[in-house]
Amino acid sequence: MTNIGVIISMVFIFGGLLAIMIYSLRGKDIDRRIIFLFVFISVATSVIFNVEFKEYPTVIVKKVFDKIESLPPGSKVLISFDFDPAMKPEVFPMANAFVRHCLVKGHKIYLMTIWATGQALMNETVETVIKEEFPDAVYGEDYVTLGFKAGGVGVLNVIITDFRKMYPTDEHGTSLDSIPLFAEVKSAKDLDLVLPIGGGQPGPKEWILFIGDPGDVPIAPGLAAVVAPLIYPYYPKQAIGLLGGVKGAAEYESLLRQVYPQFQDVPAPALRMMGPQTMAHIVIMAFIVIGNITYFRSRRRGAE
Amino acid sequence: MRKGPIIITAAVALFFVISWIIKSGGAPEGSSSYDAIAEGFWLTFAAFLTLAILSFLYKDNPFYKFAEHLYVGVSAAYWMSLGFWTTLVANLFPRISMTLSEWFQVEFISYQYHFWVPPILGVLLLMRLSPKGGWLSRWALAFIVGTTAGLNLPRFLRSDFIEQISSTMLPILVNWQGFGDFFTNFSLSASGQFVSIVSNFLVVLGVLCGIIYFFFSKEHKGAFGAASRFGIWVLMVTFGASFGYTVMGRISLLVGRLTFLLDDWLGIISG
User: What is the pLDDT of residues A151-188, one digit of tens each?
Assistant: First the structure.
């Protein structure tokens, strides 16, 4: 049924694209809403018929995975949820994958956010990933949620010298002095790895500038696609690796499934998203080709 | 008033109510009828807002305007209330007032008088709303500009300038042990010697030619002009990569919303 659905959608989409090309070659303009419709259909059919492709991890993603793998159990890893619901589809899978990987390796995780909108999403990860999949994980001993603080880079500038000045308590009002995870942590310099996830400002770039470089703390950002090209120049010296957009998240999920078979049945939203992504990209590329053919043809006619 | 908008609004309202009723019946076992009705309402409302925003792709309309204004208002209120509880209540009151700490049920830390400076600057900033005292806000603004510049300058100078220059000074020949060794161990793997050499060479060449493109004190002719043209190509490839990533980001958002509509709302697919 799924295969028949995919074939019917392909015939419909590519038949439609061919019709549009013929139509535009006759010198007629195409309404922009037709393009929206085609992108919508290609994404919707891929979601409905669950079109999936195999993901091959790239070096830049593998380096993040290998870093978490190479840390000894009990290492201190901070994950910052610096994003909002608008970025959720592409970066939330990264956050959940990082949390799963760190907990399965026995690392201690510190969750925080410098975006107000990140707090609810951070708690969603706690409820749906940590509490459901790792019921033995103890709050305060295996993970801690620091919550949100306003101030952007100001927050980072304080925690590089002292966590307690900015976070006298955790998210629930418990003093950091009474939380075992903070017994050996005074500042961000005491962390073994920082995984900032986001795509705005303040975000991963600020973590590199205000924590990674001055504190000599390894940073491996998970990025929304729009900012990924801006962070690439920091790789490999200032960022040990990075996850760019949903593609990076899908590669990480695929690695996690390969190395830890117990995650085979755990939802992998980024991997599921790559089918619709591929189909939508094919449609967009087809429109770019159609546009160029029509342009060069009309220019040649103009020259004649 | 024209009949068209009334009919469309009535149809949307009817559709909303039908969806609410259907979704209220599908609540998980064990939840109360009130929870089920609330769950059905919020799910339907979220679907309505998604469709209202997407309707802008067809053309501007009142449903889009409603969703847009609601989003702006809710976002501002959310940021403000969360800022109040996590910064003023959690960080400030325990350091300036025992009474306020007790009132908001947070543990009093100790009197730290320099913590009065931020609220005073905050009040000065709000003086901008006053026609006569507006000039007072400049003091707070000057503090913000000064500290931001002071904090950012050394960080950017180190990370975006010195470290970036250092990252560009790459060896053109990576692990070079002679031609024989290079050809006998030739590999196209992403972490192999050949790819590392090509990648380092492109980084160095790309940065040099990109800088040459922005060097206007010499006419772009001859070898200098060729380097400048290559610089343009490098910039174009960068813009293309940015565009590609942007498309991927936007499509991800569409997939996210469609998954919500088809799974959570309509139940056509399984999550």
Answer: 889 999 999 999 999 998 999 989 999 999 999 999 99
The listed CATH number (1.10.287, 3.40.50, 3.10.100, 2.30.30) that belongs to domain A59-263 = 3.40.50
Residue A205's SS3 state is: helix
pTM of the model: 0.89
| Distance from the B11 Cα atom to the nearest Cα atom in chain A, whole angstroms | 23
d(CA B250, CA B123): 40
As for the ipTM of the complex, it is 0.89
A59 vs B190, B246, B251: nearest CB: B190
Half-sphere exposure (CA, 13 Å, Cβ side) for A42?
A: 28
pLDDT at B225 over 60: yes
Determine the average pLDDT of the residues in B9-23. Answer: 88
Contact at 8 Å (CB) between A60 and A247? no
**A197 vs B: CB within 8 A:** no
pLDDT for B64-84, tens place per residue?
A: 999 999 999 999 999 899 889
Task: Tell me whether B70 touches chain A (CB under 8 Å).
Answer: no
pLDDT in tens, B130-189: 988 899 999 999 999 999 999 899 999 999 999 999 999 888 888 888 888 888 888 877
Chain A touched by B163 (CB under 8 Å): yes
> Measuring CA to CA, how many Å separate B119 from each of A153, B85, B88, B92, B132?
19, 15, 9, 9, 20
Three-state SS at B30: coil
Whether A149 and chain B come into contact, CB under 8 Å, resolves to yes
Burial label, B15 (beta-carbon count in 10 A; 0-12, 13-18, 19+)? middle
Quote the CA–CA distance of A263 and B225 in Å, as a whole number. Answer: 55
Beta partners for residue A269, in sequence order? none
State whether B167 and A149 contact (CB < 8 Å).
no
Tell me which residue in B58, B248, B254 faces A43 most closely, judged by beta carbons. B254
DSSP string, A132-166: HH-TTPPBTTTEEEEEE-S-THHHHHHHTT-HHHH
Q: Under an 8 A CB cutoff, do B159 and A209 touch?
A: yes
Using CB atoms within 10 Å of the CB of residue B189, give its burial: 0 to 12 exposed, 13 to 18 middle, 19+ buried: exposed
Q: What is the total residue count of chain B? A: 271
Instruction: Note whether B203 contacts A: Cβ–Cβ < 8 A.
Output: no
Q: Do B249 and A169 touch (CB under 8 A)?
A: no
Amino acid type, A51? V
